[in-house]
Design brief:
The protein is mainly β. Helices cover about 10% and strands about 45% of the residues. The protein is elongated and about 65 Å long.
Length: about 140
């Protein structure tokens, strides 16, 4: 039969081993809250060099592609939107600062690009980008 001291010692050892766990921390320590994704909203227009508005059909444009690069990690992705929409919302993005570049595409490839922008995507919010203007040659 075990003495009270031996039982106490055994329980203390068991508690110490259980508290160490796999992560080396306390088993009841809470995980950091998950980051809720955000998104960005983009609007675009097409013009000539003399600033005359063009339609996508007049420019032979079919797609607006947004190249997305995380400003810190450098990870890249892209999103493509039908040119006819004129405005669109990206898919879910982790909250971060992104460097964005824009391409106007047609059947034969890239027609033109627009000036890049930097956007901060916040959790559970849609960040409005500045108007993207494609000057079609």
């Amino acid at each position: 039969m075990c003495s009270r001291r031996e039982v106490t010692w055994a329980l203390l050892c068991l508690c110490t081993v259980a508290a160490c766990g796999d992560g080396g921390g306390f088993p009841d320590a809470s995980e950091p809250p998950p980051q809720h994704p955000g998104s960005f909203k983009i609007s675009w227009s097409l013009t000539t060099a003399s600033q005359q508005l063009l339609t996508c059909a007049q420019a032979n444009a079919t797609i607006v592609r947004v190249n997305i690069a995380d400003a810190v990690s450098g990870e890249h992705a892209s999103a493509s939107f039908d040119c006819l929409l004129g405005t669109a919302v990206s898919g879910a993005l982790f909250p971060a600062t992104y460097d964005l570049s824009f391409e106007l595409l047609g059947v034969a490839g890239t027609i033109t690009t627009a000036p890049p922008q930097t956007a901060m995507v916040l959790p559970s919010q849609t960040t409005q980008l500045g108007l993207v203007v494609f000057v079609v040659p």
